[in-house]
Amino acid sequence: MGERIKEKLEILADAAKYDVSCSSSGSNRKNKEKGLGNTGAGICHTYTEDGRCVSLLKILLTNHCIYDCAYCVSRKSNDIKRAAFTVQEVVDLTINFYRRNYIEGLFLSSGIFKNADYTMERLVLIAKKLRQEHNFNGYIHLKTIPAASPELIHEAGLYADRLSINLEIPTDSGLKLLAPEKNREDMIQPMTYLKDQLIKTKEEKKIFKSTPHFAPAGQSTQLIIGATGETDKQIITAANYFYRKFNMKRVYYSGYVPISYDSRLPAIGTEVPTARENRLYQSDWLMRFYGFQANEIVNDTHPLLDLDIDPKLSWALRNMDRFPIDINKDDYQLILRVPGIGVGSAQKIIAARRFGPLNLDHLKKIGVAINRAKYFIVCKGFMQIYADKRSDIIKSYILHSSKSKYLVTGNQQLQLF
Amino acid sequence: MQHVDLYYDGSWAGLLTTIFEIFEFKIVPLSLRSTGERQQGMFQTEREVFTQQDKADRVMHGLIAKVGKKGYAELWHTYLSELPEAALLVVRVATYYFHEEKNVRLNFAQDHILQMKKIVKSVSRERHRMKAFTRFQLLADGLYVALIEPDFNVLPLVQQHFQDRYADQRWLIFDVKRRYGLLYDGQSTSEVTMDHTATMAHATLIDLHDAQEELYADLWKRYFKSVNIKERRNMKLHLQHVPRRYWRYLHEKSFGMEI
Q1: Given B107, B133, B222, which is nearest A6 (Cβ)?
Q2: Which of A271, A369, B40, B125 would bridge A340 by S-S if both were Cys, CB 3.0 to 4.6 A apart?
Q3: pLDDT tens, residue order, chain B (259 aa)
């Protein structure tokens, strides 16, 4: 059995790797009755050579699939090796990897074989076995198969920590072009069901502490970036919609890795848009932790993110009238808006200024990026000397004083000589 | 007020006792080192602190009352860093805490506090790394063994984590550098030490492996290779997350090799 399982693992891990989600935090499952495992720590046990966190055993149950979505490596018409795990094989791999502290748990997805319910049933069965037969309390992330029945999705929620369904293509027109057999409504329906169940469970837990867990780490989704020529505004608007409408815990952005000669898609060899992906994650953080509205980041006048500078700096330069911010007087929410000040620094500023006014040196030691922040603040002993400068001048000052790894214009070209 | 060079036995209780005596005898410490580092000869300005548990306990309670459990834990983390400046820094910060009327734990504008927070951050990062990079190998007798070599003495900081998580398996995590480990027998955890003649190395463990150990280690290596997206290769980021010094204990990197 040794050799075959090795090959299966290679095929089915390789096929699952384009799903970027690897989060194992956000759940609080305790180890009960001296069983195995718990969740909550969100540990990355290693990192791939492309720098992504490896926290979970992320595999497909099978890469056989009845669908032919152009962007997917497991599409029916693709000539690749196919494999399928048995239920017991997935259980054994999970338990044995977990006991050796290789992983935080299991991320199980699958190609769709026979039909949605047949596939979903197998995923649920594995989670159930892990929980009930092995008293496994580690993290389980299950994919919801589009168009699976509500009963199965409900059962999945009883065993899994997180459920997700990948939207993949941010626009309706893109989906029609690349996955004509797929129906957006089949994806939205399970999301709506999950959202309602999650709210219901939360309400019930307030009354009965013994209410069983239901996907305590909530639901998430993924959008592929750069496959269909969509704008950043379309992506961020879609993400914002899913955060608000479906209480998503996370929306993931996956720069499209060319895997097909299909003329509808970027050609093989096209660079993965990692810089754009990074700017989208920064925008996502601004919406979730910095109190930004989607239309402050991108709007009809500015539908694309600036790749040279981060979206917060971009916003600040468009809104110079909102500055300077007084470090020693203004509210936390305003301090968060200053480029070069993150959540950590902002909290430290609020804590430290109670003991006395802060100067530029203090801010530097706290961890503020002074080279960006200095154009937008006043503090003890520091007046705003840049206040009358135009935003394009400030932008060029900042670009020349920093080394962005993504910088394509400006000073990087000088390095050639 | 006497200005002296202090020596203590290197233990946490010893360090707390030192803080007590600084107040008791109105000492201004010029330096603070462990007795092991002491040079020959006793100078007028030197003084040795002898650990007394009751004094240590009073300082512990005093600190918790003043700056809370978190504040106390930060000092302990600083001590576990084993950095040469750590002991004196703990004393200076504790003295600052006791002198101030308010709880000044969050005064990030104070130099000693800031210096301590930096060390606490490093130690916490190392603690987190040991939760991540500790790799158990299953032995034929059912014991899961892991060898670690952390930069700081963080084993005490991960005990609870592993105890909670692996409650139904027997395990041993051994700090090769500091020659001690934690052994969980299925009920409770105890500290084990090793004398200087014994060795704890990969070579000795391999002979004791469970029949399936090589299979799972190999499967893990294959998994690690298969999830990589080569079009996105970014070794700089990879090394930032998994620095080379940890590789010898990671199967997916250079497990068992001398680096």
Answers
A1: B222
A2: A369
A3: 778 999 999 999 999 999 999 999 999 999 999 988 877 666 668 899 999 999 999 999 999 999 999 999 999 999 999 999 999 999 999 999 999 999 999 999 999 999 999 999 999 999 999 999 999 999 999 999 999 999 999 999 999 999 999 999 999 999 999 999 999 999 999 999 977 656 667 777 888 999 999 999 999 999 999 999 998 999 999 999 999 999 989 988 876 554 4
Q: Tokens 């956000």, residue?
A: A26
Contact B228 A365 (CB under 8 A): no
Give A-chain residues touching B212 at CB under 8 angstroms: 96
Do residues B152 and B116 both lie within one domain? no
Nearest residue of A to residue B234, measured between CA atoms: A50
CATH number at residue A173: 3.20.20.70
| A120 Cβ contact partners less than 8 Å away, ≥ 6 residues apart | A144, A145, A148, A149, A152, A153, A156
**Residue A266 and residue A315 in one domain:** no
> How many independent structural domains does chain B possess?
2
Q: Are A180 and A65 in contact (CB under 8 A)?
A: no
In the stretch 230-249 of chain B, residues with CB closer than 8 A to chain A read 230-238, 240-242
Q: Which residue range(s) make up the domain with A73?
A: 2-290
Picking from A290, A322, A342, the residue at the C-terminal end of a domain is: A290
DSSP one-letter string for A287-356? HHHS---HHHHS-SS--S--SSS-HHHHHHHHTGGG--EETTTS-HHHHTTSTT--HHHHHHHHHHGGGS
Between CA A327 and CA A324 the distance in angstroms is 9
Which residues on A lie below 8 Å from B250 (Cβ)? 46
**A17 has a chain B CB within 8 A of its CB:** yes
* Mutate: best of A3, A24, A45, A349, partner B, most B CBs <10 A: A45
- Cα–Cα dist A311/A315, whole Å: 6
- Which chain A residues are closer than 8 Å to B222 by Cβ? 6, 9-10, 13
- Residue A317 and residue A263 in one domain: no
- Kindly give the pairing relationship between strand B180-184 and strand B189-193: antiparallel
Q: Could you list the residue range(s) of the whole structural domain that residue B184 is in?
A: 134-249
Residue B195 domain-assigned (yes or no): yes
Shared domain for A276 and A322, answered yes or no, is no
For residues B227 and B194, state if they share a domain.
yes
Interface check A73 vs B, CB under 8 A: no
Do A235 and A330 belong to one domain?
no
Name the residue among A55, A49, A47, A61 with its Cα closest to residue A22: A55
Indicate yes or no: CB of B167 within 8 angstroms of CB of A101. no
Q: Based on the domain organization, do B93 and B189 belong to the same domain?
A: no
Q: Which residues in chain B are contacts of A37 at CB distance < 8 A?
A: 165-166
Comparing CB atoms, the residue among A49, A135, A355 nearest residue B235 is A49
- Judge if B78 and B121 occupy the same domain: yes
Do A204 and A160 share a structural domain? yes
Question: Do B153 and B186 belong together in one domain?
Answer: yes
ipTM attached to this prediction: 0.93
CB A265 within 8 A of CB A258: yes
- The answer to whether B224 and A6 have CB atoms below 8 angstroms apart is no
- Looking at beta carbons, which residues of chain A come within 8 Å of B164? 30-31, 38
User: Does B238 contact A47 at a Cβ distance shorter than 8 Å?
Assistant: yes
Q: Do A71 and A209 have their domain in common?
A: yes
Q: Is there a single domain that holds both residue A47 and residue A129?
A: yes
